[in-house]
Amino acid sequence: MRSIVIAVVSLAVVTAAGFLFIQYSDKAFHGMADFLEEQALPAVREEDWSRVRRALEELKEQWYGHEKVCAFFMDGETLTEIECGIARVEGLAEGEEKAALLSELYSLKRQLLSLYENELLTPGNMI
């Protein structure tokens, strides 16, 4: 009986942590995607490169703050893909390559939104 109670309590803790992470990731990843849409993309369109660099620095700070939490719930390959995307964006911003940077920012935005969608408890994600 004792082992059943321990198993049920453990399952409840893990399930609650998963649901809390889903709520956290909704705000975090949508917030970063919105930040790209509202700050970085307009700055690139206007070719305001100093504003682009500031926006990317802020995005990096946001990501590295969230990455620590994500490391407990997500695989390392997924997190590395986001980090590589951020690095590509920084390189393109340094070279002031507008078209390529816009494309990569849209790709990064989609990746961030996919992170959230992949963590949802849906039949497609459970199979």
Uncertain runs are: none
> N- to C-terminal separation?
31 Å
Helix/strand structural class = mainly alpha
Instruction: Please tally the β strands and state the result.
Output: 0
Strand content: under 5%
Characterization of this structure:
It is built from five helices and no strands. Helix content is 87%, strand content 0%. The model has no long low-confidence stretch (mean pLDDT 87). α1 (2-45) runs antiparallel to α2 (49-70).
Write the layout of secondary structure elements.
Layout: H1 2-45, H2 49-70, H3 76-94, H4 98-119, H5 123-126
Helix pairs in contact: 1-2, 1-4, 2-3, 3-4
Compact overview of the structure:
The chain is mainly alpha-helical.
List keywords for this structure.
127 residues, mainly alpha, 87% helix
